[in-house]
Amino acid sequence: MRFLHTSDWHLGRSFHRVNLLAAQRAFLDHLVETVRVREVDAVLVAGDVYDRAVPPLAAVELFDDALHRLAELGVPTVMISGNHDSARRLGVGAGLMRQAGIHLRTDPAGCGTPVLLADAHGPVACYGLPYLEPAMVRDTLGAPRADHAAVLGAAMDAVRADLADRPAGTRSVVLAHAFVTGGTASDSERDITVGGVASVPASVFDGVDYVALGHLHGCQTLTERVRYSGSPLAYSFSEAAHRKSSWLIDLGADGTVEAERIDCPVPRPLARLRGPLQRLLDDPELARHEDSWVEATLTDGVRPAEPMARLTKRFPHVLSLVFDPEGGPARSSASYAQRLRGRSDQEIAEDFVAHVRSGRGADDAERAELRSAIDEVRTADTAEEVAR
Ligand SMILES: [Mn+2]
Prior knowledge:
The protein is α/β, with parallel strands linked by helices.
């Protein structure tokens, strides 16, 4: 059976000031075309369909159009909600859409109930595990603790229990939206750390033939059977070196996995340029980036006049301008965004405590207090979403 594995569409997201709707539409055209030309048997979308719980109307229309086109092709599609999606909103109409072959899995209670597919070699049970927010789903899943490993472990126990009752030789696929240990993050995933831990070991997925992961935005292979497709488009400059793609997965009669990487259309390449302004303006080597989306980091000791206007003459698509003077007092002149880049909420909060107490940092008890407050804020956001 042949699958196309994709995730993290983030419909409605923009890139700096650029609206990506046209690029997202081009990706969906490419997806539908790949499904048709490569004779795909089922499409797997591993969460973060939308960028926000309440997406803009244009993104909803794009999604609606994609669903219609996939349904018209008659190719079953299994989708789960990610941490950016509102599971409740995304799941509206799921019961009706199922009749059209679109299987939206957004309810944690349904983890152990597969979408049953079949080919000439027999059945394939396809389990869609929506993003599981530990504190919200712990009771539903009967997990011993409210952390990612415990709730995903409980969901996978339900999968394995269901699988054990199926005819021998039933092959299995799991979709999940999680940070699996060993994966590499970029700057465009939202932090899902709970109790100080964001990731789960890949061994939590033992016992199934293929795991189609979403959440991390770089395409990556954790094991032959456990892969991230990554997002179809770059959503931060940290992804400048990514090759955006989907996985074409052939699941053999005996559960063997063969994977082929299918490149996504590139709306415009990304370039991160660094150096003194005059060099960025003059260096002939940089000519190949003139049509790229550019992040320019200026290292001039003294901030040059009108840097954006001058850069834009050579690079019309400069989207981000960063100052990082070399040899100067970099720390104090770094922008707020620069100082926060790559730091977790926990680190930022701890730094704040040290800052306001003249360098005396948080002790163990205070660190734990900060951690539980940060966890609670995110859980409260999700709870409000559910209650609305
Ligand atoms: Mn995502």
